[in-house]
Design a protein that fits this description.
Blueprint lengths: L8 H4 L5 H19 L5 H20 L5 E3 L4 E3 L1 H17 L15 H18 L4 H20 L4 H32 L4 H9 L5 H21 L8 H8 L2 H7 L2 H19 L3 H23 L4 H22 L2 H24 L24 H4 L1 H15 L5 H15 L3 H27 L15 H15 L1 H18 L3
Antiparallel strand pairs: 1-2
């Protein structure tokens, strides 16, 4: 007769689950409040969401490094804490935009804020575990919420974007499940630290290497979709175009942070085991992604699509750092996204200042370059702020993204990949062209006729968020070093 297993609450270490439970509880509270009284103003839901995010942020800060919890499926290491702080921080910047205008009806629904909190909890589960099943649960929780948030924009191309994202997300989930099944079949475990232990003892088996190749390709395809890497990137421009501008900016940063963390854990494990062709597979994908996305961005007629391809290129840039599999390389990933977050979200949000229900300049696109012609004469501050964001994305010093690019290239050189740093530099030079193209339209071209009939939305919440993003972009030089030191310390403490 089997003896019962006694599990104490102390051994479960439930504090490791606290941040995710806070986000889930916040979403449920919002839904319950709406059930009780469905006539409350949306500002209440914005404030409630921000309050939940602040509490969540505090709960993450209170976690101890290198702890496990809840039957050892939760992993709280330095990378987990950093990525959760970045996910919550990016969300706290995004949510106040719901106060900016009544024209975006999705923000009037309590369900929007509940789904948003459920999505954040999914991302947190992804980064706070090395258990493949829990990663899958977090991935699907976040993805299903995000599909709905895109569709709630309630335009024809929003529905199209949500369906495309859903189909690609379902494909990614299928590949991830198949890759995880192969890993489990090889090792009898879905926990990455145990998988690494088993594989380390069997690497001399010929058949095993073929199976590892198969699993790594399946998992790479799954994260290629999620990170919009070539050739799995085709959904991204259409989805970004269909989503509201700020949500597109949010999608270009926060979901990718979660996907990169999981990629570090999985592919870093393979590279640590000495499986070099996994490193080269990642490097080839990274170079193709950053180069081809840049070339596509050069020929875009719409600023939003240009920024979408630009985001794909930046993801390729960061993927190269992941292949280095060094503490410096992994630190550069988080530094890059911490700096890129403000600039890219700010740039996408700037598109929102002149959004209209009817296309005034182009029958196909909402944000053609012509729309920004002569913006310096119509809205001087807006033109200067957008120019700052473009210069930062181009990697012009002293703006924020420059420091991220320099550190990634330094990590590549220090790891002996000088050729990779040269390709990164060339791609940055190519990217400068399409960023400067928008600046030329804003500063050197005349406004389009009848442009004075356009309504420019510069409400106070929007101005505060854009101002904050601009301040962070311009003053990066003063906080890069302390941020870098903190990131390096946390990642070193985790053994990465």
């Amino acid at each position: 007769m089997l003896e019962p297993i006694n599990v104490s609450l102390d051994s479960l270490n439930l504090i490791t689950l606290a941040p995710m439970l806070i986000a889930i509880a916040g979403g449920l509270i919002i839904l319950i409040i709406d059930l009780i009284n469905n006539k409350l103003d949306k500002t209440l839901y914005v404030m409630l969401t921000l309050l939940v995010l602040f509490i969540n942020f505090g709960a993450v800060l209170g976690l101890n490094v290198n702890e496990r919890g809840f039957f050892d499926v939760m992993l709280i290491d330095g990378i987990s804490i950093i990525s959760q702080l970045m996910i919550i921080g990016g969300s706290m910047i995004f949510i106040p935009l719901a106060l900016t205008s009544k024209r975006f009806h999705e923000y009037a629904y309590p369900e929007f804020f509940a789904l948003f909190l459920f999505m954040i909890s999914g991302f947190q589960f992804m980064v706070a575990t090395d258990n493949l099943i829990l990663i899958f649960v977090g991935l699907e929780t976040a993805s299903l919420s995000l599909y709905t948030l895109i569709a709630m924009h309630n335009r024809a191309n929003s529905y199209e974007a949500a369906v495309k994202y859903f189909i690609m997300g379902a494909l990614a989930a299928a590949f991830f499940a198949m890759g995880s099944v192969v890993v489990y079949a090889l090792t009898g475990s879905v926990e990455l630290y145990k998988v690494a232990e088993v594989l380390a003892t069997r690497l001399d088996e010929t058949g095993l290497m073929v199976a590892i190749l198969g699993s790594s390709i399946l998992l790479m395809v799954a994260f290629g979709f999620k990170l919009s890497l070539f050739p799995f990137h085709t959904w991204a421009p259409d989805v970004y175009e269909g989503a509201s501008a700020p949500l597109a900016g949010y999608m270009s940063v926060v979901p990718k942070i979660a996907a990169f963390v999981v990629s570090i854990r999985i592919f870093g494990m393979y590279i640590d085991l000495g499986v070099e062709w996994v490193r080269w597979m990642i490097l080839i994908l990274a170079v193709l992604t950053m180069t081809l996305a840049n070339i596509m961005a050069l020929v875009q007629d719409d600023v939003k699509r240009m920024l979408a391809y630009s985001s794909i290129s930046h993801a390729g840039f960061i993927m190269a750092a992941l292949a280095l599999d060094t503490t410096e390389g992994n630190t550069s990933i988080f530094l890059y996204y911490a700096l890129f977050m403000f600039t890219n979200l700010g740039a996408f949000t700037m598109l929102w200042i002149s959004r209209h229900k009817k296309r005034r300049f182009n029958k196909r696109y909402d944000h053609p370059y012509e729309k920004f012609s002569g913006l310096i004469k119509i809205m001087p501050i807006g033109a200067v702020v957008m120019a700052i964001f473009m210069l930062s994305l181009a990697g012009v010093p002293p703006f924020s993204v420059f420091w991220g690019k320099i550190y990634v290239m330094q990590a590549a050189v220090n790891s002996g990949y000088i050729w990779l740093a040269i390709i990164m530099g060339l791609n940055s030079a190519i990217a400068a062209y399409y960023y400067l193209k928008l600046i030329v339209y804003m500063f050197l071209k005349e406004p389009v006729k009848d442009v004075d009939t356009v309504y420019y939305n510069m409400s106070k919440p929007l101005m505060v968020i854009i101002g904050f993003a601009t301040f962070a972009t311009v003053t990066a030089v003063f906080y890069v070093q302390p941020l870098l030191s903190y990131l390096y310390y946390m990642i070193s403490a985790s053994g990465y």
